[in-house]
Structures are given as structure tokens and as C-alpha cells.
Automatic annotation (TrEMBL):
The entry's keywords: Dioxygenase, Iron, Metal-binding, Oxidoreductase
Keyword Amino-acid biosynthesis among UniProt keywords: no
Entry's family note: Belongs to the TfdA dioxygenase family.
Catalytic activity, EC: 1.14.11.-
The protein, known as: Alpha-ketoglutarate-dependent 2,4-dichlorophenoxyacetate dioxygenase
InterPro entries in alphabetical order: TauD-like_sf (IPR042098), TauD/TfdA-like (IPR003819), TfdA_dioxygenase (IPR051178)
SUPFAM superfamilies linked to this entry: Clavaminate synthase-like
Pfam name, any one: TauD
Organism of derivation: Pandoraea pnomenusa
Catalytic class of the enzyme: oxidoreductase
PANTHER family named in the record: (3R)-3-[(CARBOXYMETHYL)AMINO]FATTY ACID OXYGENASE_DECARBOXYLASE, DIOXYGENASE RV0097-RELATED
Amino acid sequence: MLIEPLGHPGREFGAVIHDLRPEELRTEATIAMLNDALARYAVVGVRGMPLDDEAQLALADRFGPIHQSILDASRRRLADRRLNDVGNIDVKGNLKDATAPAYGDSNLLWHSDLTFLARPARITLLSARALPPEPPPTEYVDMRAAWDALPSDRKALLASLEVEHSVLVQRAKCGFTDFTDEERRQAPAVRHALVRQHPVSGRRSLYLSSSASHIAGWPLDQGRTLIEELLEHATQPAFLLSYAWHANDLLLWDNSVTMHRATPFESTEHRRELRWTAVVEAA
Ligand code: OGA
Ligand code: MN
């Protein structure tokens, strides 16, 4: 087993693990190694790790409680609510019609997973099941480095703020407003601290996402302006990692210290099919 750091030299952001055997995923030592790598590098690929749904869920289960989708069944292709479809496949299993606004389009916006829930995603596991010949990369930003780079008077202002997040705000940003009444009822806005401290590394980081609406207790406009400004700061090239997918990659990331986005990919020919599982924060 070998860990290859990715990204800007001297910055610990992104790594790929080589030569891990599938049966090793079941050992305590491997789970501890992956947790350590996530605390240090935040985005960790495992190369050459083909997983089926059962193996993916068994692995996710080792990290904590698994998120279950509350989406209406009519929007889901997969029966098991612990697994989501990522890529260009529609609910019927065909290539998506790229012209219709879809629920998953918001993956193109900078986000952290499930930030609109009281218990957001801590770790996401994404397993590549089918990739086109030139797979679009997934981009990440390091919200620890973004925090570190802020001037200290700015840090002092931000440290105690809370951000209001909503899935309705997030999806409206990419033209999707077609929620059922039941889905709206199940999606009340939630608040999360703007600045977090990682339980293992001790590093502080900004916590934002496309679901961020405004700052709790601030006039709406002022809060939105601050969020826009911080998103612009955090998504500078200096904090960016572009992850190049390989066949049978398994990618894990720590959502509490990163944002990510899909890069555009439309195809009438090639399937891009990945399986998503999220482990949520402890209650
Ligand atoms: C995700 C996601 C980006 C991509 O899986 O959570 O946002 O590149 N995916 O598909
Ligand atoms: Mn995502």
C-alpha cells in the first residue's frame, strides 16, 4: 500500500492510495488508515477498488450512520435509499436529457454534501461504476487553507457566525423548483456554524455550500454579500484540487473541510455512472 499526495506541493490536500486489496477494506487497520488519511488530506482516492452496492454499504457502515434519501421514489432510480446515482443516467436508466433542469444539476455548483440537513454529510464515498473515455474531473477546494489565508480581523468577525442553509435555495440556483409539498415540508432551513474545528486534526475551516442562504441574525442582503465574498475567496485556484477519475476508483472526502463540484459533461453516447453514499455527522 502506498499513499501518493496530490495537489499543491507542501499543502496536504488530496491523496491517492495505491495497491490496497479489496479484502483489506474489512480490517480495522484499513479503516483507521483511511480515517487518518481523511483527517490529513481531506480528499482520498483509492485506485483499483471495484465495489458493488453491498461492498460499498458495508464499507460506509464502518465510518458511521449512513444517510437515507427522503426524495420521492419517482425521482430515484435505485431502490436502496442509502445509495444515490451520480452521473448522467436518468431515473429510467437511460442517458439524461441534458436540456431538462434536473435535481442533480446543483452538483455543478460549489457545495458540501447535505449541508441543508441538521446532520449533514461528514464523509462521502463515491464509487466509479462506468466512466466515459475522457472522464470529467471532480473539483475540490480546501476550506482549511481558505480559513488560514484570511486576515486575523476577518477571522475574529466570522468565528461566531451561523449560516442558514436550505435545499430549496440550493436547487433554485440551478433552475430546479419542482418540489412536491411533502418534500418542502421535509426541508426546513437549518443553521450551521460558519467556522468549524476538525475533531481529529484540530484545524479550523470555513463551512459553506450552495445551500447557504444568509447569516442568522443579519439583514438578508448583508449576509448574502458576505457569503458571496467568502465563496469567491475560498474557490480561488490556490485552494483547488482537480481530481482525475480512473476506472474503478473509490473516492472519499471529508465534507466538513471541503467543497466540491462536478464539471460539465454531456454525452449522448457515454455513460458516467457513480454510486454515492454519505456518512452523516454523529447526533
Ligand atoms: C457528489 C458530487 C460531483 C461529480 O457526488 O456529491 O457532487 O463530479 N459529485 O459528479
Ligand atoms: Mn456532492
